[in-house]
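Onboarding guide, step 5: your first structure request.
Type a short instruction followed by the sequence, for example:

Predict the 3D structure of this protein.
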Amino acid sequence: MLPLMDKAGLELSLLSKFVLACQSPRLADAAKELGQTPSALSIAFHSLEARLGLKLFERRSGGLDLLPSAFWLFRTGSHLLYLEQHARQAHNTPGRRVAKLSVELDLNFAIGRVSKALLRTAQQMIANFPELLVDWHFAGLDDDDIGDPTGLAGSEKLPDKAGHLRIFYGDVAQPHPDAVHLYDDPWIVVGSKGSRVDVLQPDDHVTLLRMRREIMDAMTGFATEQGFADRLRYRDEEPTQVSAILRDHPQTRLLMPANLMPRRLGLTRHEEAPFAPRFVSSLYGEASGAAGKYGKAFLDMMRRNLSEEQSAVFTPLLTTRQIHFFNLVAQTGSISAAARVANTAQSSASKHISQLEEAIGVPLLLRTEEGATLSPFGQEVRTQTVGIEERQDWIVRKAHDIAAHSEARVTIGTLPSSGHDSALTEKIAHVMTRIYSRHPDWQLQIVESSNTMLHERVRSGDLNLALVGMVHAQVARIGLGPTEPLCVIGNPAINFGGRKELGLEDVVALPLVLGRHHLSIHQSFVDAARERSLRVKSVVEVGSLALAIAMVRQAPLCTILPASSVRGDIEAGNLVAIPIRQEEVSGALSVIFSADRELSEAERIIVQEFVRVFRPGRGAAPVEMPGD
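The system replies with structure tokens like these:
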């Protein structure tokens, strides 16, 4: 489970504002419904983009356009908000037998009539069937690597058979015998502002975008029958790209079902008109498996909600911190233990959990002098809060992955710098300046952290790559070679007896200033001493190399560093450096990244450059990446 510092960013309340704004014609409409100013909402979305490290909007004088990443976040974020609402409202029967209804939408995704009706229907089902969780997928679009978003895949409470619905476009002339008719979707012509799509000439071309095969075949068949097949053109882009296509190609006229041109952000500057000859695609729903009453109720509600295009509004009450603390208590067995893990006060942890219980309306913990156990309600809720937290973490990881591939946005972690003139710092600077000179449009960020935290942030997706010393499990690594030899860096007042080299037995007896719990260099030294059964006792434990160096300059103390870190001080006589026997303490540098994702082209080039600089003579040949 991730540290709390990594859990406070992707708040559900901010995500709900984003989901509402995407469904609104203008940002001002969403702001008015939320009781905010458009400027305040715009600032909030800047914060969301910063947290995810992902650009979601194209900001133009006429308003905001949604980028492809925004459509992805809308789909995944809507699932998350639905789970939060279900966790709060579906708690009236402890020990209830949970069921799942899978809904497959064999449709092109659009933030329009269908997706809005889908979300409102899922919300309404909570009140009527609190034991039911709805899981929906748009064909060909949803990400498989998140797994089961309901958290029920491995649950013993899941029935042997779960219900299944399929929603699809069908031929009204040949209706499916077991299917329920939901909605008739008329086709329209869409063009840029001022294109007069309502007065198409007989020889004007219309363009079809990439849509589901059934609907494409239906339209091309109709065009052949009506004699306008020669007017059809095809473009291999998704309907979500309508705004960008018409902006870049203003003479284009698009032919599509009306649902794919909804009232949503970025589409207020276009024109549309009914297509003549008139053509309608009918939407159907079909149940299978153990859908039973759930499937029938869902399709009935879906049909009613499709009768008008109305936004789905989520009002989450649970916060990321509340969910995280509750999951920690369930994991550790007490509020005090959860607070220790989160490195916060017990009163703060207790307050967040009490607020979560108040929001849900039932007691989730049974508090005793020995600790805290989950109540029957708490057991039910925990199944979903774990899923919510995992989904939040996955969204952050996936957002950084998308940014690396689509925007060449790469965040790289390094060990704390021991000096501006150290060999490590110079090599990292050489890599980054070389990358910048060749790819000035890439968005690169360098952050420093401890060895342990670098691993955590790579696993959580906050970092794309990291340069580390000791490598932990669960990450992919590429070795960069040995670290620079370590030395005892001491104040000249200390008498080293003319020694040119020191063994570990001599070093541990010195008055040492170390950051053994924070600094990778010192961790490797302590580990080497422990292997020889030597006890390391520091005079002062510090959290930064800069502070350790400053103390050694001012008092008869020592620390452990590569000599290059304090080259200037050594040359000026402010400090002395005596090497530690290399066979007794040595280390290696590696570049690490998540083993659960494929590196982007930008990330691969950066890794290659690290290899070229840190392993001279071996960087010319391509490096074999794990998983290649």
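Each response can be followed by summary notes, for example: The chain is about 40% helix and 20% strand.
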